[in-house]
Write a structure and sequence with these properties.
Helix content: under 10%
Distance between the termini: 56 Å
Oligomer: single chain
GO molecular function: ubiquitin binding
WD repeats: 17-49, 62-103, 104-142
Largest sheet: 4 strands, antiparallel
Number of helices: 1
Number of strands: 11
GO biological process, one term: double-strand break repair via homologous recombination
Keywords: Repeat, WD repeat
CATH superfamily: YVTN repeat-like/Quinoprotein amine dehydrogenase
Pfam families: WD40 (PF00400)
């Protein structure tokens, strides 16, 4: 049997890196806290303080996805974020702290989009697995 050589390369991220390393897939603005959230192809969600300008706008990043973050929605008056990713998960975040609260693993393929019905406190998720799931925000954040 002939052995194959595989070349592997990766980039170790600078912990203080403020900008996305890839494209930005989604933006959500929180008017209550004057904060902008960006979802990137680098698997990171970043928070930006819109009261500041320039490089001082960056606040923190949320880094638990392992593939592109395709969409994000703000729920509960900006207290929580739901994110949809190509890692086939949806994650619930504490928005002000930037911490991951839970991971939903119902989709079998990329999760591409989220839709928030504020009046019903429900979020729908759609993915490449041809499924749509409906989530009750009050149950997820309880």
């Amino acid at each position: 049997m002939q052995k194959k050589r595989v070349q592997l390369s990766f980039l170790i991220r600078n912990e203080n890196e403020r900008l996305h390393r890839g494209g930005i897939n989604a933006l959500r603005y929180d008017p209550k806290n004057d904060r902008l959230y960006t979802a990137g192809r680098d698997s990171i969600i970043r928070a930006w303080d819109c009261k500041r300008y320039g490089s001082d706008m960056y606040e923190y990043s949320m880094e638990h996805h392992t593939d592109w973050v395709n969409d994000i929605v703000l729920v509960n008056s900006g207290k929580h974020i739901l994110s949809a990713s190509s890692d086939a998960t949806i994650k619930l975040w504490n928005a002000p702290k930037g911490t991951c609260m839970s991971t939903l693993r119902t989709h079998k393929d990329f999760v591409k989009c989220l839709a928030y019905a504020k009046d019903k406190e429900q979020v729908a998720s759609g993915g490449f697995d041809n499924n749509i799931f409906l989530w009750d925000i009050n149950v997820l954040t309880a």
